[in-house]
Amino acid sequence: MAGSVGGSAEGHTLSPHMSEGDRTRIREQLARILESRAFEGSHRCQELLQYLVSKTLESDCPNLKERLIGAEVFGRDYGYDTSSDAIVRVKANEIRKRLAQYYDQAGRGDTLRIHLPVGSYVPRFFVVGQFPSAIEETQSSLPPGGDAPRATESIASRPRFRWWWLLPVALVSLSIWAFWPHFSPQRPIDVFWEPFFKAGPPVVVCIPASDRIFLPEEAVRQMAESGRQGLGQMSMALKVPDVRVVPNGQTSVQNIRATLSIATYLSQNKKPIQFGLASEVSLEQIRRGRVVLIGGFRNPWADALNQQMRYRFETSLKGSHETSWISDSSAEGKSVWAVPDLWPFGRQVVDYAIISRFFDPSSGQIVIALSGLNGFGTQVAAEFLTDPKYWSRFAQLAPEGWDRKNCQIVLETKVIRELPGPPKVLAVHTW
């Protein structure tokens, strides 16, 4: 019987008449592959290969097209642009590399082999030695339009297997495995998030909040009228029982939007999430796992992290006038990007944000912090972290090897009628 290892262009794929026993052997082989070191730490590749094999075993090959796979496996919209978002092609190529690695190492002695042909999303199943199953020949790649290949009639007899065929195929597979990383770079946004998507505890999304103060309705009315009248003085008689405080009862609309953006992105990437208010997240959770800190000034964990970084938030309150800015500690704390009128609140025309990623490979600790000087910056930082179209400028500024380092990204957004515009990358720092 004709067999193959890795990248052979000749081979066989299961027919509609394959026995349930053969399907069971293929599922068992798939489980061994997904649990191997070659696929360890790549949740996306595991999920995509399992999806492709399952669809093929269900005889659903015609639906294995790039756009549908992107929607059902990676959470993209069903009408997304595959030319600008290559997630399916990138991960399929990575699967081919990992399969070659598996069969060169742990799976060297396996008699049943799963192969993903170049140009196709339909897996094919090869047998080395005797494997009594119904098998039929198929094409090796997708025709124009991305349709799955159609199988020909079953062959009744199998030619004698020639072992020497394996040598050139194995050499080609090893070459592809060794050199593919140089020809198939991942998108910067995927590289940035990759430590979060490895196996581990759920991501903890830490939300800032402040106390909510309730006053009598008449007092609120008087304060609103005084505010509309401009500067001046007002007197108001309040008794202690008139004031009620709800701890952590209030957060901004921008913080909510940022939280929803991050939560949606993590869900699309099949990462479990836990939510917690800043006051509820423990030091043990910070030390243990994967944490996203949203907001800075009302988030004590983010504030503590901020003080250790090159780019950090500063604020100054003189009387009733507050100014906030981002300083550069390498330039002796020089103010670089400032918002002069955070309080009293004027019409804000610009906001700035910092995204910080800190991770320790030895402990597995991973923290991402995102915050603006005001809420506009926080919202835009979350949009930047979840949309690949904003990362081209980052790719230009980031030094080689940034993916293995801690990093900071400084962003700017123009604010028009209380709505933030697209993020602009101003600076990137790695260490």
The total beta strand count reads 17
| Helix/strand order, N-terminal first | EHHHHEEEHHEEHEHEHEHEEEEEHHEEE
Q: What's the CATH class of the largest domain, please?
A: Alpha Beta
Overall SS class: alpha+beta
Short summary of the structure?
It contains 12 helices and 17 strands. The chain is of the alpha+beta class.
Mind explaining what this structure looks like?
The strands form five sheets. Strands 5, 8, 9, 13, 14, 15, 16 and 17 form an eight-stranded mixed beta sheet that branches. Strands 10-11-12 form a three-stranded antiparallel beta sheet, with no helix packed on it. Helix 2 (43-57) crosses helix 4 (87-104). The longest helix has 18 residues, at 87-104. Helix content is 33%, strand content 24%. It has helices at 20-34, 43-57, 66-74, 87-104, 166-183, 188-197, 217-228, 253-268, 283-288, 300-306, 375-386, 392-397; strands spanning 12-14, 112-115, 124-127, 135-137, 203-207, 210-214, 244-250, 273-277, 290-294, 311-318, 321-328, 334-343, 350-360, 365-372, 407-416, 419-420, 424-430. The chain is built from twelve helices and 17 strands. Strand 15 (407-416) and strand 16 form a beta hairpin. The chain has three domains: 12-185, no CATH class; 203-209 and 251-430, 2-Layer Sandwich (Chitobiase, domain 2), CATH 3.30.379; 213-248, no CATH class. It is α+β, with helices and mostly antiparallel strands.
